[in-house]
Design goal:
Layout lengths: L29 E5 L3 E5 L3 E5 L24
Antiparallel strand pairs: 1-2, 2-3
Length: 74
Amino acid sequence: VLIPSYHQPHSIVDRSPNVSSGQKVELVGDVTHVDEDRVTVNLGGPVTVKLNTVRLVTSYVAPKRKTPLVDKAT
């Protein structure tokens, strides 16, 4: 995959049978650093891209426990 604002090739595995040149692919990773107009995303290795090429997706947050895992002292 060649990310236009990254200017370096990035390898991914896509096993879908209908892959074509110019097809858009969504890469998901954690944001590790934000500059004025650049964002560094961890995609197995750090990839720095322009801010307008990424979109924020809220991450999954596990539900809070109602009771603690530790037993109360008796």
